Structure formats: C-alpha cells, structure tokens
Known about the structure:
The protein has a single domain, classed as Sugar-phosphate isomerase, RpiB/LacA/LacB (Ribose 5-phosphate Isomerase B, Chain: A), CATH 3.40.1400. Helix content is 45%, strand content 16%. It has six helices and five strands; from the N terminus they run βαβαβαβαβαα. The longest helix has 16 residues, at 12-27. The N and C termini lie far apart (38 Å). Residues 11, 13, 45, 68-70, 72-73 line the site of D-ribose.
Amino acid sequence: MAQIRIALASDHGGFGQKDDLKLWLESQGFAVDDFGCDDDSSVDYPDYAKLAARAVAQGDDDYGVLICGTGIGMMIAANKVRGIRAANLTSPEFARLSREHNNANVATLSGRFTSLEDNKKILETFLGTEFSGDRHTRRVEKIMSIENEE
Ligand code: RB5
C-alpha cells in the first residue's frame, strides 16, 4: 500500500511542536513533507498555510497538518485554497467528526493551548478515521460547490 503523505507546516506559534510531531508521524509510518517554518522567529502563518494546503489540493500530499498559536489562523488561510477542507481540532472527538462528517483533508492544531501529547491523540484519530459518506457526501459536495459560485 502506498505510504500516506502529510504536508506539515507551522508558524512560530506552532514551531515548538512541529519537529516532535514530524518525528512522531514518521514513526507511525507516514511520509512527511515539511513546509516550514524553520525556527521560532516571528513569521506570517498564511505564507505557510498556503504552501502546505496547495500541496494537498494538488495531490502531492494526502493530508495537511498545520500548527499555529491557536490553529485558527491556519484554518482560515488553508480554507481559502480551492479543494481544502481544513478543521481546527482541539479534541479527538472533533477530529473523528471532522473526518466522518466533513471529510476534512487538513487538520489545524494549537501549539499554545493544546499539549503535544493531546495533539498526537488528535492526529491519531484524524488520520485513522474514514469519511462516512452517505448523507454527508451530498453536504460536502454542497460545500465544495460554493467555490464555483463565487
Ligand atoms: C501568532 O502570534 C498567532 O497569531 C498565530 O500563531 C495564530 O494563533 C493565528 O491564528
């Protein structure tokens, strides 16, 4: 089976967890493409969200994992990229539902308000849960059709 690829990125607010999450993802069997940032100096999260989200939208990576202070800015920026369904995740339950109901393809995480261990549990659930399909397919298709109505 082909290795699942993850596009990983953070700003300075998420940098403290990025390398640990990268090593952990690799230890779980995922291939990780790291789009930065490269240290904890202040940067602008949309620059990094855009790079990783585009890699997912183009099919170079299967999922995105984006970390900033809250995860919120990364989510808003990533959702501007056509084809992206980014969800800001603060619990394994929301991670499960974002996959089952919303077919989320990008997880955004908080590096300041969620611990590294909790973010690992969130990602374990996110990456281990399939989309439920059925009635949710119609709803996700309606979300994506908004991109063509603008
Ligand atoms: C940076 O200070 C902070 O605004 C950013 O990491 C993120 O939390 C934005 O949503």
